[in-house]
Specification:
The complex is a heterodimer of chains A (about 500) and B (about 250). Chain A has about 500 residues and is an all-alpha fold. Chain A has helices at about 5-25, 35-55, 65-95, 100-105, 110-145, 150-210, 215-220, 225, 240-245, 245-280, 300-315, 315-330, 330-345, 350-370, 375-380, 385-415, 420-440, 455, 460-480, 485-505. The longest helix of chain A has about 60 residues, at about 150-210. Classes of the chains: A mainly alpha (about 500), B alpha/beta (about 250).
């Protein structure tokens, strides 16, 4: 047992909290521990099988690899790093804006700097653990087929998590100083979303212009890019070489990462408490609406409910950033549509499943917010409106919001092909309706601020939502062909909905 | 005095079981224009009773009539004349007080002109003019409770049901809420309220009901409760503690 108030003691406290958070997340509050263990085992086995299928053939790549291989590995690492950075920014922002034990920490006789240094290390450790968990099936598979040198990948992943956390801290604190506590929350969420999606999207847009496809590899292997990159001995390739098992490169990468995270902690821990206090006080700041007229507009219960939902959706910064991310993912298909117009090809068929999938995911989030995330359930329940009418109005609000996002793209597509636009519209409608149906079956009373953790309330609903969107996307893609085989994925999608109906909680 | 007035709320044989009976065959009769306080120790069944009356919880047995309307058979009609306010004001963080009132007016189908006049009066009365167009997210608990109270009153309910509405309010806000409720009663409205602040019940209530273990163990004016509790009893607090103690001893 370590001495109280030392770094080790604080670290063990953070470790305990982190562990309980994780187990609660995985076991849905400890209620389904056995199911969770079974699910984890199945997941681990499935991931190893998947990894075996994906990377088995790359296990024999030599450390002295050619530029194209180094580019591929580096860009994979860069993509993973961007996602880690996005995740770390989200964690840093969450710690900033959640008051939780801040008052206790800052009024205790323990050095706040020490506490926040440990807390920053916890963010890095959490990011590393998550990344290692996801990367381990691939690393293990490569090591199994290609020898232990591939285990160096664990070191590279840990180094990536450490540097991503350091950059996330620097970025968030820079935002804080530049634009203040209130705006940082929204901007940080948007930046995190953009960073996560930006790299993939950028590569896709590059690929569309260079090869007319959505394949990212096309862009990476283009002779133009290969000719402009540094030599194979360059420091730029060290992370890739470390991942391939080059011990010198691995040591260099690890030492650099350690120095970067230690430097960030030393630099930022002193003022972290000050910033966290300012951020926690943000909720007290007033936001005035532009409307100052005292004229109330006449409304029916349904229109009042719809308007309320739309206003709340529009004013929710987290949701705005999530929606923005969905729209960002639509950017490559939109560019593809533009290129299609210019060159007169029919590559727009690729657009349809992407948009149907995005619509399903967006509708799932919106439906949760509208149906489960009700901040004044008593008000709604005591209003003289039937529950069916309330539900209908909320569903209309979701459908309206999704239509607003996707109608312009569908309309543009109609100029190219009325049939494709019709398939797209039907696919979007089906994916949206299915996602909403799933949320209705698994509705639970929650505060809107719990949106981030909505996936923990029902694993079944989460997976069903994802599989349903994929199935409807596949249906639309095949139908756009056109082919009658579209009935097969459609049957799968309907079977998912039937399954959801059968296993739904009866109290809902 | 009250019995000459029409009945505003009547429950008969009201029952709700959770692990144990939370409300056990409760008969309550509250008359129009009456301020009724429901007192009881923690876990006595006060909140469960009020949540059933407000339509937030279905009873296992019994009947509820609000202004002569069978609240279980015609819930929407009963809700049209009822307002509910709990100790935790539920307002939308991202709406302004004015938008909140507009939303509530829409839910209760109040025509725009009437709703507007009432909203303006309530906003002024509750001292919310400066915050009328500011989102509720930064409001203190007292401010949020004022907004929720305005929402409860904007549809001019005949029966107002309040569960610990003064919890956590400062003296000024509590006084304002009490004044608003008193004024509603003076205009013929009916108020049923639970509170742990016995002084409030002592000063404001026309009649007081004491509930323990889900049953009504005593009911009446302050003087009637004093008499029932015993000759040595001077205040409502003494009467309440004596009644609850005798019930506990009997159980």
């Amino acid at each position: 047992m370590s001495e109280p108030a030392t770094m080790a003691w604080l670290a063990s406290h953070e470790l305990r909290l982190g562990w309980r958070d994780l187990t609660s997340l995985v076991t849905a509050g400890g209620r389904r521990r056995r199911n969770a263990i079974i699910a984890i085992v199945v997941f681990v086995v499935a991931m190893h099988a998947f990894a075996n299928w994906v990377v088995k053939n790359y296990a024999t790549i030599d450390i002295g690899a050619d530029p194209v291989t180094l580019i591929t590995i580096s860009s994979t690492l860069l993509l993973s790093w961007a996602l880690l950075l996005s995740q770390a920014m989200e964690s840093v922002t969450r710690i900033f804006y959640t008051r939780s034990d801040l008052d206790l920490i800052l009024t205790s006789p323990v050095s706040a700097r020490k506490v926040f240094a440990v807390r920053m290390a916890r963010i890095a450790a959490a990011a590393a653990m998550m990344a290692l968990l996801l990367a381990s099936p691939f690393i293990n598979t490569l090591a199994w087929h290609g020898g232990p040198r591939w285990l160096a990948g664990y070191g590279v992943v840990a180094a990536m998590a450490a540097t991503a956390t350091a950059f996330a801290l620097a970025l968030t604190i820079a935002l804080f100083r530049l634009i203040g506590a209130r705006r940082t929350r929204l901007i940080a969420q948007i930046v995190a979303a953009v960073i996560g999606a930006g790299f993939v999207i950028g590569l896709q847009i590059l690929a569309i212009f260079s090869g007319g496809t959505l394949s990212r590899v096309t862009a990476l292997h283009s002779p133009w890019l290969v000719a402009r990159l540094p030599d194979a001995d360059s420091v730029v390739w060290w992370p890739a070489r470390a991942a391939l098992g080059d011990i010198t490169a691995l040591v260099a990468v690890l030492v650099t990462a350690l120095l970067v995270i230690a430097g960030a902690i030393a630099l930022f821990s002193a003022r972290f408490g000050e910033h966290a206090l300012a951020a926690a006080g943000v909720s007290a700041a007033a936001v005035r609406q532009r409307r100052t007229s005292l004229r109330l507009r006449p409304r029916t219960p349904s229109s009042a409910l719809r308007r309320k939902e739309w206003l709340l959706l529009w004013r929710d910064p987290w949701l705005v950033s999530q929606t923005l991310m969905q729209i960002l993912y639509l950017l490559p298909p939109a560019v593809l549509l533009y290129v299609t117009f210019r060159h007169g090809t029919n590559a727009y068929v690729v657009l349809i499943p992407v948009m149907v999938m995005a619509a399903g995911q967006l509708a799932g989030g919106l439906a949760w917010l509208s149906i489960s995330g009700e901040d004044a359930p008593d008000l709604i329940a005591t209003a003289p409106v039937t529950p069916a009418r309330v539900l209908t109005a909320k569903i209309e609000a979701v459908l309206g919001a999704v239509a607003l996002v996707f109608a312009p793209l569908t309309a543009v597509l109609a100029f190219e092909s009325v049939y494709a636009a019709l398939v797209l519209a039907l696919g979007i409608a089906a994916a949206t309706a299915a996602a909403t149906f799933i949320q209705i079956c698994f509705r639970a009373q929650a505060r809107r601020s719990h949106f981030r953790r909505r996936h923990t309330s029902s694993r079944i609903a989460t997976f069903a939502e994802a599989f349903s969107s994929v199935s409807w996307a596949a249906t639309a893609a095949v139908a756009a062909g056109p082919s009658w085989l579209a009935v097969i994925p459609m049957a799968v999608a309907l079977a998912i909905l039937l399954g959801i109906w059968l296993v739904r909680p009866r109290t809902a | 005095m009250h019995k000459s007035r029409p009945v505003s709320l009547a429950t008969r044989g009201l029952r709700k079981d959770f692990e144990r009976p939370a409300v056990d065959g409760l008969d309550l009769t509250i008359y129009g224009g009456e301020f009724y306080c429901l007192l009881g120790p923690n876990g006595a069944g006060k909140t469960t009773t009020l949540r059933m009356v407000a339509g937030l919880l279905g009873p296992d047995a019994g009947t509820i009539a609000i202004e002569g309307i069978d609240a279980l058979a015609r819930p929407e009609d009963a809700k049209q004349v009822t307002a509910w306010l709990s100790d935790e004001p539920m307002v939308y963080d991202k709406l302004t007080p004015y938008e909140y009132l507009e939303f509530v007016a829409g839910l209760w189908r109040i025509d725009a002109a009437t709703a507007q006049a009432r909203a303006r009066d309530l906003i002024g009365w509750l001292g919310l003019e400066d915050q009328a167009h500011t989102r509720c997210e930064g409001f203190s608990k007292g401010m949020r409770q004022k907004v929720a109270l305005a929402g409860a009153l904007v549809h001019d309910p005949k029966l107002i049901i309040l569960d610990e509405p003064l919890t956590g309010l400062d003296a000024g806000a509590a006084r304002l809420v009490k004044n608003v409720l008193r004024e509603r009663v003076a205009r013929g409205g009916t108020v049923i309220m639970t509170t742990h602040i016995l002084e409030v019940a002592e000063r404001m209530a026309d009649r007081i009901g004491v509930i323990a273990n889900g049953r009504l163990i005593a009911e009446g004016t302050l003087d009637e409760l004093r008499i029932k509790a015993g000759a040595a009893v001077a205040s409502l607090e003494d009467a309440f503690l004596a009644l609850v103690a005798s019930e506990a001893a009997a159980a």
